[in-house]
Amino acid sequence: MLDVRRLRLLYDLSRLGTIAAVAQAHTYTPSAVSQQLSALEREAGVALLERNGRRVTLTPAGRVLVVHAETVLAALEQATAALVAVATGLTGPLRIGAFPTAVRTLLPATLVALGRHPGLELTVTELDPVAVPDALRERRLDVGLLHDYDVVPVEPDPALDTMPLLDETVFLAIPEAGPPTALAADELSADAGSPADGSALGAVRDAAWIVATPGTLCHTVTLQVCRAAGFTPRVRHRADDFTAVLALVAAGQGVSLVPQLAAAQPPDGVRLVPLPTRRRTRIAYRRGAAAHPAVAAFVNAIRAATDEFLTR
Q: Coiled-coil stretches, from where to where (predicted)?
């Protein structure tokens, strides 16, 4: 019989790549992880790993077992959800991960709704969406929010199930007047209900830009959108918080791309021009966890909060 905990270590090795990374994710020592994987090989009766000095790779048998491990781990999530479902009321921890704009706009009403279940122990962690999949797989989160953009789609994670929550307009945020844009009115003629074409971006090709930190999805999206319009943005400032971004735009320090959630209440001095680009947010949880009562309650609550927010 194969030990499930050891299967999880093998699965994590397949995605993390090194025994050291697996050890860090599980707060084990590398030696302990190696011992557990060796024990799994004895249980399986075949070699699962090829060792070459400090490097470890999966054998063909190891890769086959990883595929089955995904199914086993998802089935365990389903079994856990079924057991919890027969209990009376919603109880236990619910660890939520979300990006800053969602924490500010969608989660307050969501948490109020979930607060009607006093047995739930709610914990929110503000995370960049790129960190959410690992946190879910490593069981540091129970549910989280992911997003991508139509211009930079993200491949689905086989260990996770997701469902759509929100499809947002992305805006070009510009100062109302004055440098650095000095744009003619006819160049930015789109209204809030009609996305502008590439001419809006072309009109700010020589402007100073406020962009996110390199390596973040928002930074990649800005570069992609500008390059598609035929130019590379001239970066003046870097900021990851959209409140700070909009304050800099209002101060005439540059232009930026801002999604709908972040642009709900722009400061005075900012004009928002809708673009065809879309940001897509999804609710994510481990495969098999959809029927878990706490996860289902979160899904219902955040969907209601999102609908309420969009109708304001």
A: none
